[in-house]
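This section describes the prediction task in plain terms. A model, or a person checking by hand, is given the sequence of a single protein chain and must write out its three-dimensional structure as a string of tokens. No templates, partner chains or ligands are provided. The sample shown here is typical of the held-out split.
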Amino acid sequence: MHAMQYEFTLPADYDMGIIRSRVARVGHLLDDWDGLGVKTYLLRERGVQGSAVNQYGPFYLWNTMEGMNAFLWGGAFQGPVNDFGRPRVRQWTGLAYEEGGAAGSPATSAVRRRQPVPDGVELAAFMAQSVDETVRLAAQDGALLAAAVVDTHAWEVVHFSLWEQDTPKAEGDVYQVLHLSGPGLGALPRGRQW
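The expected answer:
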């Protein structure tokens, strides 16, 4: 499993209805994308659920690098680049993935929590704790899925979870889910990724 996210931070007075309309128009285009586990079309609105910014920030879990590369370099990614400019695309290696008890329900919110890997910690123990956190999140009422991924350049773990309710039981940046494309959701490898 491989994760990816890019974000477009928009002006404070930006009409977020433009993003909603865009996703309604093009969101279905990845509903059958080869190699994609799940893409969540995510939105943060200034003043809603603690957000200080207006932001469009899709988050992906990929089953294959070929699928991700086909998205980035095969032309599909050029659409958002043309509309908003070329963003910094973050990528992480999978640590763990679990389905929640609400799997299959419509997702209304997502939470992304970034956590630095402190200097001096035992890496195996820290990553095992991240796996445990994934299991804990997936076991919460209303959880559709939970994942933990790591960037070994920045030494950062990201915990990502999807929820069927607007008030998720996780800490971090809360996003509204506008659309979910999950052609390979059932093929994402469960449990610890090593």
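For orientation: The chain has a mean pLDDT of 97.
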